[in-house]
């Protein structure tokens, strides 16, 4: 730890830099700075954002000398890793970590010349931009013997080794049986260098969404080029560090609270560095130089053992979030904080490595990913600051639901008790998905309306393979149909019948492909026969009248009249604030009639509803519900329903907008997770808006 004298000396040096131009030849001055016994907290406390901006503006030559000398010191330590100079290396790392964001926030001539200018007086071999030297030195520092890995990590390695197994930060890829050296000192040094890597990669933060180019950052280009030092070793080390981490600590209650927080800090920073490096170049390459070696290396990982290691590690961390809230002894299991980074990492693996995606669907229990996605989305649905978390969980479910094996896997019985207020049910993981997505719609707030189509698409993809929905899930599905056919939703916008069409397709899939096991759903549909009849018999005058009534209700709300309170599971359908009045037309009605696949369900109702009514009447209207379900299970619709339609699976299609969203989301996570010490200054960020509540 830095002493009070060192902190005071650092403060004096900073005052001198702010008040006077200090020559690069003032060796005593600069040597004193680099040899101070400081901490990261000292550097971040004493060097404020305004201090750096003041230096840029008033003493630019001091900034040049500071940046140049820190870079030179790191390069020297990389080439001659003498332990006695590791303290100086940490000082250089801390200073660069602090000032880099403020050099990158303004794309001006000063930053361009300082970071990317080359001294033409130097020989070609030495003529490298300082930015590239910083990036390469950082990548070397992450595997510097005695500093971030064991002193003998690179000795006596076999020639055919993929990577030096003792240089890995944890066993896993490149060495499932490896036992790399581990210590708190190594972890603390790794954490500081990873923070430097993040700040050296932060250029996307200072591009607006309108001007953002996924290939434009030259800092990230240097870090992800094929000549980037230790690329494969870094990818494996970061993945192993994350996936081998066990938050249970010593394996006893409260064991995680007894251990140092350094390993957890490294895991979080490793996950952030991984997703930042993998995100670069998310769009189609524009030139032959547009490559990302980390994306290529991730896509090339193969082998069942490697895939099992990755999947089990990621699933363990994601399930820790709800398991930590569901213990007999409160707080006895430490909860990880980097679950958003883990979700992004899952997405990157599924997106970039097709073999990994196939493996987890066919050889692993993919439901171990489904449960935490459902839990996190449900718990975050009402929090405006966690809308991004809901999006990433939804996108993962949407991506996976495009594969038949995923939908079949959801038939696995669900017997966990999640720490939520979800209704209890006895059923499968498909029931869990239905119940959670229903709750997302009815009590998720208006910010989730853009995701409604994604929610319903997930259910639609899964529905042909859902063998037996529980009573609770069946009722929730039909209540969604009531919700989306209500005037306050159906007439809120001209295209809202698309939601109804998806729900009808869900019902048709279950009726035509899984009729025998879904008696609860069939009965729920019969009980809501009036809703389906009303939609089938919809006329233009009726639609216009309903739309006019809807507008009258909205006008009453605008005048301050409060709608009656509703049960959370049966709220009034919401209307997006500011939605323009929509008046149905003959053309709209014709299009709705053509788009809504009602024929299958209407034939079912015309055939089955009278029989059930007669059955109930014969029992003097006191027939047990189980008897009705038994009757439904004993009937057959063969020959009565239309020929089964082809199963339609809607797969996630990547595009520029979702790629930009992922970039903004992951950098938002990095920004929020690095507030102690604060790596970035919120007001200067352009990629997204930082609001202080």
Structural commentary:
- The chain is mainly alpha-helical.
- Helices cover 58% and strands 1% of the residues.
- It has a two-stranded antiparallel ribbon.
- The protein is elongated.
- The two termini are 34 Å apart.
- Evaluate the radius of gyration: 30 Å
Spatial arrangement of strands, main beta sheet: 1-2
What's the tally of helices? 32
Tally of strands: 2
What does the average pLDDT come to? 90
Q: Give me the secondary-structure category.
A: mainly alpha
| Percentage of β-strand residues | under 5%
Give the N-to-C terminal Cα separation.
34 Å
Low-confidence stretches: 564-568, 570-580
The outline comes out as elongated
- In percent, how helical is the residue content? 55-70%
The major pleated sheet works out as: 2 strands, antiparallel
